[in-house]
Structure formats: structure tokens, C-alpha cells
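Lecture notes, unit on binding sites. The following record was shown on slide 14. It pairs a sequence with magnesium ion.
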Amino acid sequence: MNKQINSIRGMHDYFSEDLDIWNKLKKIFKQVLNSYSYEEINLPILEKTEIFQRAIGDVTDIIEKEMYSFYDKKGNSLTLRPEGTVGCVRSIIQNNLLYKKKLKFWYLGPMFRYERPQKGRYRQFYQLGVEVFGLKTIDIDLEIILLTNRLWKILGIDLHLMLEINSIGSQLDRIRYQKELVLFLEKNKSFLDEESKKRLYSHPFRILDSKNLNVQHILKKAPLLNKYINEKSLIKFNNLCKMINSYGIKYKYNPNLIRGLDYYNDTVFEWKSHRIGSQNTICAGGRYDSLVQDLGGIKTSAIGFAIGIERLVLLMKSLNIFSIQTEQINIYIIFIGEENKIHAINLSEEIRDIYPHLKIFVSFSNCSLSKKIKHAVESLSRIVILIGSNEIKKKCYLIKELSTQKEFYLIKNELMLKINNIFKK
Ligand code: ATP
Ligand code: MG
């Protein structure tokens, strides 16, 4: 036998067990986003490498080690998108959408990051991304929180998600804060783990995110970013918190919440769940008011978030939501004798013409009749139609109703009526 070739580590095949949940999720995403007048867009999976380098920040995890970049046949460096915001900003600039009024978008698709695969962390994973452009005031920050909160409610998971929120101020605020933070961490270097030591000068904010208990302990005494944030940003943030509160949405103010990408400012937030292990952030986002300009557009405020679909599915599964078993097959057709195959195919086509929503399965395998019936039962089929030479001679079909174990003969018209009665919505 030839050696088997497997998929790339951290990249998975998805089967109907998961895809059924994905499709239901997508339907609900669509419905909720539509109710807020957000429009769906589809963006390329490949972009020029330089766009991510310019937007995400040189010393972030993504740029330093997570990008799938390669040269095409002309020597251009291309990258499989590690996230969706940058491509979306590129697109709205390129298509002159900034001059239009409708600037609320969403997309769903695969992202790629060369990370260490583990539960909830993969190399190809899917995100639902939402981006809004041109709105400066915190009303849109509130709308985004209300929208995500509504999603969790409709999905039935709101009690298992907690909102964490922070303001990271302006870039200038963060430069001033970074100096103080680095001074503090230098003084306490002996308490830092190897990872944090490496980040001390390249990306000290990531240390705030460290899972190491010693580091977390020492961080309790570290200077806090909120002391360095400008007055205007602080007022905006306090007002936003009040507004969120007034809608009865519980949140935790987390002064150490920073995002892994450089382009954020002011509001940042994450929705987390305790039920899915250590990779517990299901949805993350924030404001990025300078990115459009950084990528060559006119100065435009912006805010967005992304939901990690696999992590959301892990949570849905842990709560058994959407897991009600549905019929995998509605009508199972068995022909007895090769000469009757054509009658089975023709009947299945006729049923599909009249009842396009039904799942009809014609058994072509050459296993025994009892095995076929067993398969029909396992696939939760409602009825089995048997076609043998006897039935063809009598111009009728033998019907087995699996739930009642009843058997009866029907001519074609009666069969169609019966199907209508059983499966009418
Ligand atoms: P994390 O701290 O979990 O690495 P991040 O800051 O890198 O998250 P974002 O870039 O904000 O994540 O992505 C938004 C969401 O996409 C995350 O909250 C998570 O649900 C999901 N996500 C990010 N990276 C992965 C991955 N490698 N595998 C699966 N889901 C992911
Ligand atoms: Mg990450």
C-alpha cells in the first residue's frame, strides 16, 4: 500500500456533524446582522504581505512568527490572511466605499496562523468578522456590544459568556505608559519567565496577557495603563460603561486587557467563556481609528470584532445546543434486483421534483436487504420504499413506516399524498 498523506497539522476537515451547527450559526448570524443593517462581503484569502506588515505592527506575534507567507511565480510576497480587518480596510479604500453612506460589513471565512495547535487553537480557523467605518462616537461601540449580546441570547449561550472591556487610549498614551511599564518590569526581571523576558523590549504589552502565575503576581504591582490615558478617552470610556450597564449587560473592567494587534485604540473588548478550556476568548474586537489612514485612505474612524467559529462551536457542543437529532434521511428507497434499479431512480427523481426539501436516499450498495433496512433505521429515515418485481407488476410500492413498523402497499398517487401528509411543514 502507498504511504498515506495527511492534512497539514492544525488544519481540519469538517463533517456534517459540525457543519450542521455551522449552517445554523450562519443563519442566525445573518438574521441578527441583517436586523442591524450590516451587509455581507466576500474578500480574498490572499493579500500582499506588505499590507499586513504595515497594518498589524512589526513586533506582534502574527508578523513575527504566525504568517503563512510565500512568493508567487513572479516573486511577489503573498500571505494567507491571518485576520480579516486589514483586507476589509484595503477593500473599502480600493473600492471608494468611504464616500458612500452604508459602511457596516460582515464576512465569514478561513484565517491562517502558524500557531501551536491545541484545543481551540488551529492553523486554519474560521472567523465571523464585523467592521464599521465612519462613526466617531461611542454609540457605535455600544451598538457592537448590543449586537454581540443579542447574538449570544439568540444562540442560548449568554449565561456562559462574560464581557471584559478596557480602554487602551491613544498611541501617544501607550508610548508614555510603555516606558513606565518597561522600567517596572526591568526592576522585576528575575520574576519574569523566558517568554516575557523576550518580549520585554519588543512587545511589553503582551506580558500583561501572560498566563504565568509568577508574572501575573508581579503584575499586580505594575503601573496601570489607565493612569496614562488622556482625559477625552477616559470620559468616553466611562460613558460607554454606563451605557452598557443601562442595558443590563454585565461586564468586567479589565485594565490589563490589550489586543494582540497594534492597530487598536480606545475601546477594546473580549467575550470569554469558562467552558472551553484555556483558549477561552470567543469574540474579540475594538476601535481602530487610524488604520484606514495608515493604509492610504482618508482619516476614518472604525470599529470591529471577530468571533472564532470553532471556539463558539466548542461552547455550543458543551451545552448540547443544536444537538437535537434530525432525520439524516427522510425517504430510503430500496430496489430488489438490478432490473428494478431504474424504477427506484425514476421514483426518487419524481419525489425530488415535487418535494425538493426532502432528503431521499437510493441504496445502490449490494449488501443484504436486512442490512439496508438496518442502515435506514440508523439514518433515522421516516419511511422505506421497497421496489421488487412483484411491486412493479402490481404497479405499486411497498412502504415501511419505521416509527410504527406498519407496512402497506400504495400506488404512485397515493404514495405522493402519503409523503405530503408525513412531511408537510
Ligand atoms: P488569542 O489570544 O486567543 O490568540 P488573538 O488576540 O490572537 O486571540 P484575534 O486576532 O483577536 O485573536 O481573533 C479573534 C478571535 O478569533 C479569537 O478571540 C478567537 O476566538 C479566534 N482565534 C484567533 N486565533 C485562533 C486560532 N489560531 N484558532 C482558532 N481560533 C482563533
Ligand atoms: Mg493569537
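Take-home: DSSP finds 15 helices and 16 strands in the chain.
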